[in-house]
Every structure is written in structure tokens, then in C-alpha cells.
Amino acid sequence: MSDYESDPESCIFCTISSGQDPNASILHSDDDVVCFWDIYPAAPQHYLVVPKKHIVNCAALDKHDVSLDQRADQRLLFCSRLGFHLPKFTSVGHLHLHVLAPARMC
């Protein structure tokens, strides 16, 4: 297993998405995704959106996976920057979308 992969049993984002981390600041949760505050914010509003299904990274997505950009609330996207880390630059081996607001251009 490489540095950026993780086992679902020990994955912090799996723990958060299953509701087992009492310290997580959950903003939204449904059957497919969970959104919570990033613990190391890079903007006044910095959220992570993660699928509840353990997907290692964006390279592991296939056509059967939920598209996070289609699930995102349009109000959340206004004046925001969105981004995934690519493998090798991934700190947690669970796919997560960064949502940072406000974007500098707003």
C-alpha cells in the first residue's frame, strides 16, 4: 500500500462519515456524502466533502461513483474554490473535495 492509500478500517474520513468522531463539525450528511469543516483551514470557510463509500482518490473513481460536483449545493459553490489533491500529494487516503470560500475573485 502506498503512502496515500488507506485502509477503510483505519481511515479518519470513514470514521467521520460514519458519525463515530464526536469532534467532527458536520455541516451536511446524506446517504452518499458528508461535509465538514477542515481542521487546518486555508480560508475563512474551508470544508471537505467526502463520499461515505471509501474511495482512495480521484484516480479510483469510475462511472458508478457519485459525482461530487453534481451533489454540491449551488449556494456552496458561489465564490468558492474547489479542488482535489492528486495522488502523491494526498494527506488522507480517502477522496475529499476541498471547498474554500471566499475565493479571491469575489
UniProtKB/TrEMBL annotation:
PROSITE patterns: HIT_2. GO terms for molecular function: hydrolase activity; nucleotide binding. Residues 12-106 form the HIT domain. It catalyses: adenosine 5'-phosphoramidate + H2O = NH4(+) + AMP. Keywords: Hydrolase, Nucleotide-binding. Belongs to the HINT family. This is Adenosine 5'-monophosphoramidase HINT3. It comes from Chanos chanos (Milkfish). The lineage of its organism: Eukaryota, Metazoa, Chordata, Craniata, Vertebrata.
